[in-house]
Structure formats: C-alpha cells, structure tokens
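Section: Multi-chain targets

For targets with more than one molecule, the full set of components is provided together so that the structure can be written out for the assembly as a whole rather than chain by chain. Components appear in the order listed by the source. The example entry contains two components.
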Amino acid sequence: MEAIRLTVPCAGDNILTLRAGDRVLLSGTVYTARDAAHRRMVELIERGEPLPFELSGAAIYYCGPAPAPPGRVIGSAGPTTSYRMDSYAPLLIARGLRVMIGKGRRSRPVLDAMHEYGAVYLAATGGAGALLASCITDCELIAWPELGAEAVRRLTVRDMPLTVAADAMLGDLYESGPAAYLAARDA
Amino acid sequence: MRELFASEISECVARLCMEANTRLSSDVEAALRFSCENENWPAAKGILSDLCENLDIARSTGLPICQDTGLVTVFIEFGQDVHVTGGDFESAVNEGVRRGYAEGHLRKSVVSDPLERVNTGDNTPACIDLRMVPGEHVKITVSPKGAGSENMCRVKMLTPAAGEQGVRDFVLESVKDAGGNPCPPVVVGVGIGGGFDSVARLARRALLRELTSENPVERYAKMERELLYAINATGIGPQGLGGKTTALAVLIEAAPTHIAMLPCAVCICCHADRHATEVL
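Its structure, encoded as tokens over all components, is:
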C-alpha cells in the first residue's frame, strides 16, 4: 500500500478522504502537547484567552520528547498514550484541531467530535522514539517551559511515518485491525 | 565487614540508568527480533521491524530507546556484611539517578506531588526495592518503566475459590483491556500470593527474569506457556492494530499467602522491558 503524503497545518478537505489503516507520511508543523499542556489550553479557552499556537487546521503530537543531546535537534520523540487527552480533545477539535498524533484507542466522544468537525487521528509507533526523532528537523519550545518535557514545542517534521488509526467517518483501526487479522487467520 | 563508599553506589546507578535506557538486555532483544521474523501479518511485521530498527538507532546514536525513560525502580540485593561510608544509602541511589538522567540526556518524568504535579527536574526520587542478603556484595539492578504500560497494571484480591482459573481469567482480561495502550508486544509479569503490597512487588520483579526462563514449578510454568498462547490468540497484535504478536513472555512468581486470600497482580511492560545490572 502506497503511503499518502499529508502536509500540516491543513485546510481540512484532504483529511476527510483518509481511512483507518491508510499509511501517511506527514510533513510540516506539529505542536507537542500532552496532559498538563492540554489542561492549560482548555483553561485558556474557557477564560477566552489566546492559545500559544493557532489551533485552526493544526496538528498536535501527544509527545514529551527526551532532551536533545549536543548536536541534535531533539532526543527520542515517540508518542504517548492518547486516552489521557480524551477529556480535552473534543473541545480542541471543535475549535479547529484537525490532526492528532498518538498511540492507543480513543473514546467515543473523541471519535464523534472527529466525525462532526472532520478530524483525523494518526498513530505513531509507540516505543520507536529514536526512529521517529530522525523525522524531526526542527524543534522550538514555544510555551510553558516550566513543564519540562510537557512544554509545548513547535516541531518541523518531514515524512513522519504514521498510520490512520481513526478517521472522520468513525473508522477505528483498533477495532478493524485485530478483527481483520482474526478473520484472515481463521479463514 | 566490607566498606563501600556511597559515591561508588551513585556512580554505578548512574551508569546503569544510561545503559538500561539505550540498550535492551540480549534476551529481550532476541525475543523481539524473533517475533518480527515469526510474524506473518504484514502491518504487524512492519511495526515490529520499526521497533527492531529503533533498537539499532538507539544503540548507534546513544538516544534512549523510548522518550519515556520512566520512573526508575532500583532493585538492590544488599550484602549484610557491607557498611556504607561517606554518605547515606538512599541519597546515594538518588544521586546516581540524578547524574545518570542528566549525563544521559534522559527525560525527567517525575512530579514531586501526585496532585500538585510539579516536575522535580531530575527524575528523582527513584523507587527502591531493597533486600538484605548474606555476604559482602551489593547487586544493583536499574529498571526504568514508562507510564504507558505502568498505567495498565492491576492488582485484584481474588478469593481462594476463584483458584487457578480466576488467576488466568484476570491476567487475560487485564491484557485485553489494555489493548494497544501499553505498546504491545508486551511482557507480562504476574504475581500470585503474598499480600496486597507484596503481590505487586512479585509481579514487578518477574519482569527482571530472562524471557526464555520458566517458573521452576511445573504448574506455574504450564500457566506461563498457556497464558502466552491465549494472549497471542487474542489478535490484539503489535500496537493493538492486529497480528499474532501481542506478548513476548508471561512470567509468573508465586508466594505464600493467607488462608482467606488469593491476591493477583498483573504488571504489564511494553516490549522495552528495560533493566541493567552490576554487582559491586
């Protein structure tokens, strides 16, 4: 299966054609945010204050990278488990977030919000942090340095290998992937 | 009585933090590479192949295998004829973690208070699992474990009536519910017996065993083999996206317990079952 090239931030239409199981090579700008940054972003939205980055069309990578050794852009930078962001994600999707990158299955409210607003959830290989770091060409800390690994960073990525784990049409590879394997095995 | 400088303990722990985070032990690496060769579902094989390549990159660059360099548990077998000088033991262990995580450019993932959640900035304090043993040696094992798999661990106080089947059901249910979250293929440590606190320790310690080893008691060895088969028959697969490789090993440790209890702990670890050991 040929990988689909996707650039972020994105206008929206091109991600609606993606389907669970598609392989994607992602390039462009993604923002790291995980537990603590999500809580702060939602608090800012509730207070009507601006976020550290433009959410419209944006891609968020659930990632807290390891520190960059000398001579490197970033340390290991694989995905963290996404479900911990599920309570925050629907609001961010409603405010324009279009691409989420992480690992592990999402809750029904997140899938519903993705369907309603047209967003996609991409899985990166958990535990392949050293490999994924090689796709990151630039890293700049843009908000909340006191959070350490959890601070928001703007990453420039090139051909980051990802799989569509959940699409805007309620397709969920965490359901269909194992089911397809079992059907083939037992056929 | 042998004298051991606290600084020697710190240096050893620092070295082991860096080693454990950048290189898997040979048995864990071999199990992962074998699973990749053995997997026939294309998407699953692709993921396993990425994980093997990731190990090569970590080894050649010195980058940690995973950005989640974990909460560190330091397992120590402390010879009772050893006397620590030049500092206190627990501070020496934490100083080693501090130094290893700074020098190794490892991520600092510890918050000082579970509700206030302010990062301590140096990945301390470590969890210390101390056992006093006869002799003049100190055996130190550093084992970092990430939150993705740690959050999927469980303890259940079964009744004696639940028996072996109750244990099997609980283990399988725990792995199924975890799905892709703990980054399968997983290593499953199982503790049976003891009390509420010690059963979790049994399961955590089981993760230090060689993956090809078997419990010396045939009943438990049989459970290890059959649970591994049952887990790999679920189809969860690498990353939870389907395939036959869901677990690399099931390791059971059992201990005496109370007449009214059957505690069971399931300590799920990602494929990076990280640990490194030195004897001082």
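Residues 75 and 164 of chain A are 25 Å apart (CA to CA).
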